[in-house]
């Protein structure tokens, strides 16, 4: 029998199509924030801003934090409270409750709870309080007020750290005051941003997107100096990852810009509009609402009320919400870049390059904090000394003379 040889077909011109590609995946241990998840438990070891101080009023307010739905209010004695929404009696929502001198009263049967969840009254029971009233506790979380924000600790009570203070917000220059803002300054979009928190956290140490996204792709979004290609170095610090960008200005001077991503979710970013040189003017905290949404609270030193709001990104003089869909497409910013990665970015599809070194370092840093927690240690940045000095960051925009020639 004669054997026929079947020629091997030439390589198809369609090699490399998307057909048969694996299902994309993401790093769950770094992105998911619900109770019981690795990152969710790590983040619960820290205090987080959950609202402006003015958000806690006599009108119950719904808030969602780390995947949990909660009710924020302020009783008539001035104490802020953060409670689980469903009444411990029959589950009616305290969103419909009435705030009183000693706490919040459920609309269904009138049970009254104080800001620490103690059941104070059960008006339908004999004598206004049943025999088991003292054993009833509405789930609650500790809160504090600082810098015009309401802060909550949602972790294990025996690991509760002190609420950190920060040197750049404690030491004010002449004529300065503190101002807080809840409009997600730095997020480049609406108040609530519909993607995973890590996509913005990593953006903090991605220095090269400033050159393309904010400078050369659709025109200068900040200032001309930010369009100069920098020399960037990154280093891991005790609290996160720091990036130092060096730009040589046309007049020969050196523009040194220092920024940092710090635990738990801090954005230590000097103003990209470089209105003045010096130490960082504001701090921002990324609040993971759940796995698919986040927002940013910012506190900064200002000379006049409203200065923080002026930091919001504008394109052709318009705020994000004022732009048309076509204008968003033509002039994308951080919001478009981050959200278009997906609700949670597909890490399995990435091809990191040398310019992404800071991103890789930040992921490794977070992983080390998870490992420390798994060993029973306290993660970085958790301090238990009420007299601890304010946290210092060396971030800022600095204009320096060139090094002297040898």
UniProtKB/TrEMBL annotation:
Database matches in Pfam families: Rieske
Domain of life of the native organism: Bacteria
Single GO term (MF): dioxygenase activity
Region (Disordered): 374-406
Protein name: Aromatic ring-hydroxylating dioxygenase subunit alpha
Phylogenetic lineage: Bacteria, Pseudomonadati, Pseudomonadota, Betaproteobacteria, Burkholderiales
Residue span, Rieske domain: 47-152
SUPFAM superfamilies: Bet v1-like, ISP domain
Keywords: 2Fe-2S, Dioxygenase, Iron, Iron-sulfur, Metal-binding, Oxidoreductase
